[in-house]
Amino acid sequence: MSRAGGTWVGARVPRNEDARLLTGRAQFVEDVEPPGTLHVAFVRSDLPAGRLRRLDVERARSHPGVHAVFTAGDLGPLLHPGAMLVPPPPLEGLVFHARTALPLVRHRIRHQGEALAMIVADSRYVAEDAAQLVEADIEPLDPVVDLGRALDESTPRVHEDLPSNLAAHVRQTKGDYAAARARADLVLERRFSYDRGIGGAIENRAVVAEWDARADRLEVWDTTQAPIPVRNVVAAALGLSESQVRFIAPFVGGGFGPKIMFYAEEILVPWASIRLGRPVKWVEDRYENFFATTQERGQLHRAEIAVTREGRILGVRDIFIHDSGAYDPYGLTIPINTQCTLLGPYHVPSYESEFRVAFTNKPIVTPVRGAGRQHGVFIMERLLDLAARGLGLDPVEIRRRNVIGPEEFPYNHEIMYQDFAPLRYDSGSYEESLEEAVRLVGHETFPRERERARADGRAVGVGVVNYVEGTGIGPYEGARITVEPSGTVRLATGVGTQGQGHFTAFAQIVADAVGVAPSDVRVVTGDTSDFHWGTGTFASRGAVVAGNAIHAAALSVREKILRHAAEALEVDPEDLELVNGAARVRGAPDLSVDLGALAVRANPLRGAVEPGTEPGLEATSYFGPPYGTTANGTHALVVAVDPETAMVEILRYIVVHDCGTVINPTIVEGQIHGGVAAGIGNAFYEELVFDEFGGTSNASFMDYLLPTSTDVPPIETAHLETPSTLNPLGTKGVGEGGAIPVAAAFAQAVEDALADIAPGLEVLDIPLSPGRLFDLLRTRRESRESHAESAGGPS
Amino acid sequence: MAWSGEVEPRLLLSDFLRSEVGLTGTHVGCEHGVCGACTVQLDGEPVRACLMFAVQIDGHEVTTVEGLAETPPGEAISVEGLHPIQQALHEAHGLQCGFCTPGILMTAEAFLRENPAPSREEIREAVSGHLCRCTGYHNIVEGVALAAERLAGDGAGADEGDEP
Question: CA spacing 20 to 30 A to A646: which of A183, A220, A336, A380?
Fold first, then answer.
């Protein structure tokens, strides 16, 4: 494949990784099974809160086929609380209580699904049989389920050593909100909720570990988004050198956030392999995934907006509670994302934001696609809609009056973001993106469409909302690029891959620099033996942070190629070009030398490498941005609501987005499609239901509804490209943007559709399930009817 | 290939294929018949391998994703040698992490045999028994439509126009 007259970056290159995935030959962790492998099942608590009084594992231990049963008492030095992965940023007045879990419960159970015992047996079937034989005597405790009451004095404590369930308290402000409020023409306050959901990767988690006693090495296959940090934690915990431990995250079947976490199984399975001298394998099942894998989203907000009568924002105040679940290993990433992303693409002269993080007896909360940003967007966009309604303005118009203009970058919001740097926007296209979405959805002529539909007895509505997404945060990533004697170019980087098309997008960056086709670049990601510096795949940072490290390494290799080729061809490097896997003289294409031959020349078996140079055509580079780059976009959708059944059908869905330089438009569109689908799930279908005893009552795909192909509409996309000013490629992240504004857009469109039928109906809670919308409609109707009665009745 | 031997009666077909036969292309996502990742064909009809016991296939023919195209061991797999449905999903970017893909392929292959010229809506209906968290389904639908066109060979494939 060749590409004339352009660069590979920006081209719709089909993916390098597909052939293996399409034929079932791609290796996922579950496919790894060395000879002699033993299988693990965990005994987990059904209760969300309790005291473990006694655990009898003797019958399980003597069950045929069982090799070991481990409980907390067997763990020795491993029995200490897990790593605090992300410490809180250094904010003034910060309160933060770090609490992480033991690998296995010793005394206190704090959420459903916490592991009590680990069973290792000949097969998973036998391990599960033995799990049934474990007898746990648990004294149930009153669980903390209701987030709204988690911080009340009378509520039982999740962590008995703390004075309350308060995990953290943060307040950030800019300007003088009280003064803004005092001179506002309109002040509106509402309460909002945004409930919990799961990440929902179709592949559950899995760990396979093989201790090789002769080689003194541990090899671990793991479905992680962060193979290098996990390797480092595991090596330290097991008292091994990092070089003795190899972590491989091969093909991973979807990440979406929860697989960035460090989990106890990642240490217990390798530890068991060392102890038993056998390969050990654990594959999470779907039921376990609903408790043992982290979740996201529970927040309650009380928010207020102050505006002028022209609709200009004077200030916003938002006070919220964030549900951390039973522990808080991921620090404050999510609530700080919420706090910062709320400001969106708008001028907000004054802002008062305060949040409390609460411990509850629910599964642990860590980032899931969007990572708290969707909450912020939901609150701000809803406040704007309500203000527009209060002022008799069109929702689009109020946004026009408040967006940051193109000449105002870099724009500083003056508060601190999750990367410990001030919240600054490097570049963006907020006005253009809004106008493009307005044009594409036909907003100007929509009122006529709405009337026509109404005449046919259908309620249709439109929604248009904006978002920004802080992406591509540090600290850094790295890459090593090597030209092999075959002419193949090898790229190794530390970030793992979970479907983002890294094998192709990264190859495109390399291909441009060294003059080969992307299919000639062999990409290795997520194997610590190939590259062992880096942090992982999170915060929409792969194409930004790893991408620019790859770009830097590729340019260094290019320099080396040109230097060796100039010597070989006895010409000036300036006169050379790199095309089709060779260096050739401009204007004299017959004078050329293949990259493979140059690789041999650069790594001679005799002679000497000159002082100050290195062998081979190889370079390693790192990239760390000063702060995160901010992507932006606008979503517009048209819905039809059936007022009888409260079912909502999405008729059109439009995404205008700006992620800076687009490396591969096809891959970017795929990211957006998937993000929107997840957002639709969030907005309308997905909800974790906790009963009064704190148990999850819908822990299966039968009862927890992920959207299917008949729930997600076709998605229309438009790309704007405002390059980031913070990196040479100009890239910004796009992994989460699709998911972030969906609920806000959905709420606006549903209200619009029902404006006549249920005037004044307000969507303040997400997910807005059909059931919840049905109740809203009924309440609205009833209040109207009683209102009409009292107005028309005898006085 | 023919397989003969004895297995425990409770062994699921999905586990049998993956661990006894070594065909790991069939993936397991929920083990309660919802996600569709483990879909294989039993005598040409799509079934969920996690909802069947291995002993139930005695005397039957099972086709897994590995059987869709000839990919001789030892040779590099190239897209050119693949089944038209596999090629079409590749061209339409109908897969991202690829975990759910084998199941979707097995459903789509059987579906297009039965309905060679489906509308986009019929395709959406046909793959609605598969959960995919990556793609939002958009490009899966496009890929199956493209495959229908290719398989028809005369341009009488998927009917366009009901989706942008």
Answer: A380
Q: What is the 3-state secondary structure (H, E, C) of chain B?
A: CCCCCCCCCCCEHHHHHHHHCCCCCCCCCCCCCCCCCCEEEECCEEEEHHHCEHHHHCCCCEECHHHCCCCCCCCCCCHHHCCHHHHHHHHCCCCCCCCCHHHHHHHHHHHHHHCCCCEHHHHHHHCCCCCCCCCCCHHHHHHHHHHHHHHHCCCCCCECCCCC
Question: What are the strands, taking DSSP E only, across A229-290?
Answer: 245-248, 280-283
Domain ranges (residues) in chain A: 18-24+474-623, 142-199+295-418, 200-292, 430-471+630-795
Report whether pLDDT(A665) > 50: yes
Give CA–CA dist A674/B134, Å, rounded.
5
Measured on CA atoms in the order A524, A526, A529, A535, is the torsion positive or negative? positive
Residues from chain A contacting residue B27 (CB–CB below 8 Å): 28, 30, 202-203, 253
- Tokens standing for residue A325: 């679940």
- CATH fold label, A200-292: Aldehyde Oxidoreductase; domain 4 (3.30.365)
Contact between chains at A709 and B141 (C-beta distance less than 8 A): yes
How many angstroms separate the CA atoms of A54 and A242, rounded? 37
Distance CA(A549)–CA(A540), nearest Å, equals 15
Contacts of A498 in chain B (CB under 8 A): 97
DSSP state of A342: T
Give residue B124's domain range.
Answer: 79-152
- Report how far apart the first and last C-alpha atoms of chain A are (Å, whole number): 84
Task: Please name the member of B37, B127, B137 whose beta carbon is closest to the beta carbon of A202.
Answer: B37
Q: Which residues in B lie closer than 8 A to residue A677 (C-beta atoms)? A: 133, 135-137
Q: Two tokens at B73?
A: 């061991």
Q: What is the mean pLDDT of chain B?
A: 92
Alpha-carbon gap, residue A680 to A676, rounded angstroms:
6
Q: How many CB pairs under 8 A join A and B?
A: 191
- To the nearest whole Å, the CA of A678 is away from the closest chain B CA by 7
B162 domain residue, yes or no: no
DSSP SS3 for A557: helix
Residues of chain A positioned with their CB less than 8 A from the CB of B35: 202, 286, 701
- ∠ Cα A411 A413 A418 (to 5°): 110
Reported as type and span, the H/E element at residue A562 is helix A547-569
Instruction: Please give the tally of structural domains in chain B.
Output: 2
Chain A partners of B31 at a C-beta cutoff of 8 Å? 285-286
Write down the ipTM of this complex: 0.95
CATH topology of domain A18-24+474-623: Aldehyde Oxidoreductase; domain 4 (3.30.365)
Distance, in Å, from the CA atom of A182 to the CA atom of A159, rounded to the nearest integer, reads 41
- pLDDT of A225-251, one tens digit each? 999 999 999 999 999 999 999 999 999
What is the model's pLDDT at position B162? 47
Q: A369-425 pLDDT, tens per residue?
A: 999 999 999 999 999 999 999 999 999 999 999 999 999 999 999 888 878 888 999
- What is the rounded CA–CA span in Å between residue A194 and residue A378? 9
Residue A777 is predicted with a pLDDT of 92
- Report residue A534 as tokens: 């880096």
Neighbours of A419 (CB within 10 A): 21
Tell me chain A's radius of gyration from C-alpha atoms: 28
From the candidate CATH numbers 1.10.8.420, 3.30.365.10, 3.50.50.60, 3.90.1150.10, the one assigned to the domain spanning A142-199+295-418: 3.30.365.10
User: Crossing angle of helices A333-341/A373-391, nearest 10°?
Assistant: 30
Cα of B85 to nearest chain A Cα, Å? 9
What confidence score (pLDDT) does residue A788 get? 65
CB contact under 8 A, A24 and B102: yes
pTM of the model: 0.95
**Selected residue of A124, A202, A666, A702 to mutate for chain B interface (largest B Cβ count, 10 A):** A202
